Amino acid sequence: MHITQLNRECLLHLFSFLDKNSRKNLAKTCHKLLEVFQDPLLWSLLNFHSPVELKKDNFLLGPALKYLSICWYSERVKVCNIEDWMKNSFQKDICNRHENTVSDFLLDVCNRCPNLLSLTLSGCGHVTDDCILQVLKNCPNLKSLKLENCVRITDHTLEAVTLHGGSLRTLHVDFCRNITQAGLERVRQKCPSVMLRAERSANMIPDSKPEKKTTLEKASRKLVQL
């Protein structure tokens, strides 16, 4: 029996065992398999391991998407999670190449995937509070939000959770060093039903840019020394 002789349910089940690239390659072989590839039922879960994958034409976004994960475990993660003011020109150049990639993708998710239930972001150093705010507003059924090693996430995200995370049941903000203990306490008070986890976050010291000493301060210090 040829693969195209299988019914649609069997083909969908078969496709479900393949990764995104394999699905795309198989879909190129005939129109029937292309139709299976384009079936929204096949795309309820998406896992990405690099921002580069977000630009590939090997998946579909739509209302069927329930579970989304973008986890970047690369040496470049260390560069993207350095505070902007600490980066040298070479590091800035690396980051500029994909600075808006994840943010633009999440905006697309907001517009096309209203039934999202779970979002996991790890190592996404360019994701901002505004990105998460838009997700919470546009995906009202979101039950699980897990953020790890996202340097630009601050207490504004925690505030957005208290305002727009009515369906949220799980919130992780691990290694998000720019949130504070006060922000976490507000979530605990306003959203007691949310399972909150913040490993190595509020106890970490944010890499805030040191303020420059004014001329007057420098002069005062010299006078004290004299």
From TrEMBL:
The entry's keywords: Ubl conjugation pathway
Gene3D superfamilies xref list: Ribonuclease Inhibitor
Keyword Signal: no
Positions of the F-box domain: 9-46
GO cellular component: cytoplasm
CDD domains named among the record's database cross-references: F-box_FBXL22 (cd22129)
Pfam families hit by this protein: F-box-like
InterPro entries: F-box-like_dom_sf (IPR036047), F-box_dom (IPR001810), F-box_LRR-repeat (IPR050648), Leu-rich_rpt_Cys-con_subtyp (IPR006553), LRR_dom_sf (IPR032675)
PANTHER family reported in the protein's UniProt record: FI18408P1 (PTHR13382:SF69), MITOCHONDRIAL ATP SYNTHASE COUPLING FACTOR B (PTHR13382)
Protein name: FXL22 protein
Species in which this protein is naturally found: Ptilorrhoa leucosticta
